[in-house]
Structure formats: C-alpha cells, structure tokens
Amino acid sequence: MNRRQWLSHVPALAVGFVLPAFAKEKSRVTPLVKSQSEWKRLLPRNRYLVLFEENTEPPGSSPLNTEKRMGTYICAACNLPLFDSAKKYDSGTGWPSFFEALPDALGTRTDFKLILPRTEYHCARCGGHQGHVFKDGPPPTGLRYCNNGLALEFVPKEQKLPELRT
Predict the structure, then answer these.
(1) Are residues 145 and 99 in contact, defined by beta-carbon separation less than 8 angstroms?
(2) Which of 37, 49, 50, 84 is the most buried (most CB within 10 A)?
(3) Which of helix, strand or coil describes residue 152?
(4) Which of 150, 112, 117 has the alpha carbon at shortest distance from 131?
(5) Looking at the domain 3-156, which fold is it?
C-alpha cells in the first residue's frame, strides 16, 4: 500500500475510532446539570480537577485505599452511590479498586488520552470523572474499576447515605 492509498483510509479510521469515544451508555439515573463554575464553587480544587478536568491523583495518596469497613462509596460531587464496599479489593495499583459497580451508577466512554483506547467511566448523574475500567480484575466479573479516591466519599454501613446534591 503506498502513501496515497494509506491516506485515503484515514477518514474511515478516524470515524471508527472517534465516534465511539462520544458514545455513552444509557442510564435510568436523572442527570444533574451544573456549570463548571458551579462545580468549582462547590468542590475543593483537588476534587474539582479530578472530577471535572479528568486529572488523576498520585497513586497511593488516597486514604480510601486502606478503608476496610462495610459501607457505600458515593460520588464526591453529587452523592450518587457508585460502589458497595463488598466489591472493593486491593489491586496493588495504588488506587481504590472495585470489581463491580452498583446498577445504573456509571456511564462510560472511550478515552484516547494515552493514544491507545481505554474505557473511562464517570458518575451517571453528574458526569464526574471517576477513573478507568480494565479487564484484568478478579472473578466473578474480571473487571477492575480503578477509581480516583478524590472522586469518592465513603459512607459506613451504620450511617445514613446523604441526600443527593441538587
């Protein structure tokens, strides 16, 4: 294949890779829509950067890595329950990891920030970036939801879940 033939295939390749990046899973969760300035005002800077600028915290920096109590992990922006603590495990990556999310809690999209495609997941309610999901987790799902600790809050089982943020 010469250069001209190869270049003629670029538009088709671009459509094949770019369009799925914008596909989102459907959810039964009612979206919470706030402007970037509202989120900046409501959240500490480090949480805002992770949740709405898709930054990543340093590995090993989250106190949630060592959290062992029973409870629920909720979105740090809108309080939507995302993970049950029974689905958490130590992946050895330095970030809180789970092998299964709560039903309808997450949306996904393809992320090409590191050139190769990855599956980014976000809160189905507010769209806050949580992390990436990989297919190298434990049974029964084989999935590893690798989450930024700053994107989560932990609510122990004995406490009532907070109201969803409006």
Answers:
(1) yes
(2) 50
(3) strand
(4) 150
(5) 2.170.150
pLDDT less than 50: residues of the chain: 1-25
* Token couple for 85: 């603590």
Q: Which residues is 153 bridged to in the sheet?
A: 74
* C-alpha to C-alpha distance for 142 and 29, rounded to whole angstroms: 25
- Cβ-Cβ contacts under 8 Å for 91 (sequence gap 6 or more): 97, 137, 144, 146
Torsion angle, CA of 72/62/140/108, rounded to 10 degrees?
Answer: 80
* Catalytic residue selected from 75, 123, 126, 146: 146
Q: What backbone phi and psi angles, to 5 degrees, belong to 74?
A: -120, 160
Residues 80/29, Cβ–Cβ less than 8 Å: yes
Euclidean distance between CA atoms 137 and 15, whole angstroms: 30
pTM comes to 0.81
pLDDT in tens, 152-166: 999 999 999 999 999
SS (H, E, C) 51-119: HHHCCCCCCCCCHHHHCCCCEEEEECCCCCEEEEHHHEECCCCCCCEECCCCCCCEEEEEECCCCCCEE
Mark whether 126 is an active-site residue. Answer: no
